[in-house]
């Protein structure tokens, strides 16, 4: 199994915007066969170093993660996220 985690820092970190971004990401759930599990958490920590959102997803294999990465629906969401974020960090690992 493969875990794919992404943290996002948004240009507009208002609660309404964070919720809208969460909904946009969650639209992938059930629409990409390789995506086994998807959750998006909205940060509530007031710490300056905190990120605004966390995406956590699971895949059976590295190849499934690669297929997800180039899936047209995912690419569309990534393009949107690039336009509204200031920073993102990714961790991928097998478990």
UniProtKB/TrEMBL annotation:
<feature type="domain" description="Stress-response A/B barrel">
    <location>
        <begin position="2"/>
        <end position="93"/>
    </location>
</feature>
<dbReference type="InterPro" id="IPR011008">
    <property type="entry name" value="Dimeric_a/b-barrel"/>
</dbReference>
<protein>
    <submittedName>
        <fullName>Stress responsive A/B Barrel Domain-containing protein</fullName>
    </submittedName>
</protein>
<dbReference type="Pfam" id="PF07876">
    <property type="entry name" value="Dabb"/>
</dbReference>
<dbReference type="InterPro" id="IPR013097">
    <property type="entry name" value="Dabb"/>
</dbReference>
């Amino acid at each position: 199994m493969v875990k794919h985690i992404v943290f996002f820092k948004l240009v507009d970190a208002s609660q309404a915007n964070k919720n809208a971004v969460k909904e946009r990401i969650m639209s992938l759930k059930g629409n990409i066969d390789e995506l086994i599990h998807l959750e998006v958490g909205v940060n509530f920590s007031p710490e300056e170093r905190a990120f605004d959102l966390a995406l956590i997803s699971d895949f059976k294999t590295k190849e499934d993660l690669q297929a997800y990465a180039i899936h047209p629906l995912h690419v569309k969401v990534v393009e949107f996220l690039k336009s509204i974020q200031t920073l993102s960090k990714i961790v991928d690992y097998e478990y």
